[in-house]
Every structure is written in C-alpha cells, then in structure tokens.
C-alpha cells in the first residue's frame, strides 16, 4: 500500500503480483456485515461533512476509525471542537 500511488515508478509497480486500489471512505457498502456497528459513525460523518470529506484519503479514514473506537474521545466531539480542529 502506498499513500502516494502516483509517486511509484513503472519499474517498481511491475514487481508487485497484486495491486489494490484503496480509495478511502465512500458512502456505499461500508457496513455490509455489521450494519449496527457503523450506523453511529455514518450519522456522525453525515452530520460533519468536512470530516467526511477528509476521509477520501485512506490514512485519514484510518485515523477517524481509531478516534471513533475510543468512546471517551468520541464523547468529547462537539460541534465547536470539530470546527476548531478543522480551522
């Protein structure tokens, strides 16, 4: 996996047997196996579109999921806090 896929040169790219396109967050098919698990996160991201937009980058998606998995941190997310983080 590469966070800068355009930086990989052709010679290096050809050495891999399998290529995966990791596009980050999208709104379809994310919680196919456990719909209840993702519902609160999906509601949060639908509420805070600016955070949802940064999830297009895979590393940001991973960071949001790490933060989301900690209930104490999640409880601190209020609209003011989210806006301050984004500014």
UniProtKB/TrEMBL annotation:
EC code(s) of this entry: 2.3.1.129
GO molecular function: acyl-[acyl-carrier-protein]-UDP-N-acetylglucosamine O-acyltransferase activity; peptidase activity
Gene Ontology biological-process entries: proteolysis
Entry keyword Hydrolase: yes
Domain of life the protein comes from: Bacteria
Name this polypeptide is given: ATP-dependent protease subunit C (ClpC)-like domain protein
Keyword annotations of the record: Acyltransferase, Hydrolase, Protease, Transferase
Species of origin: Rickettsia amblyommatis str. Ac/Pa
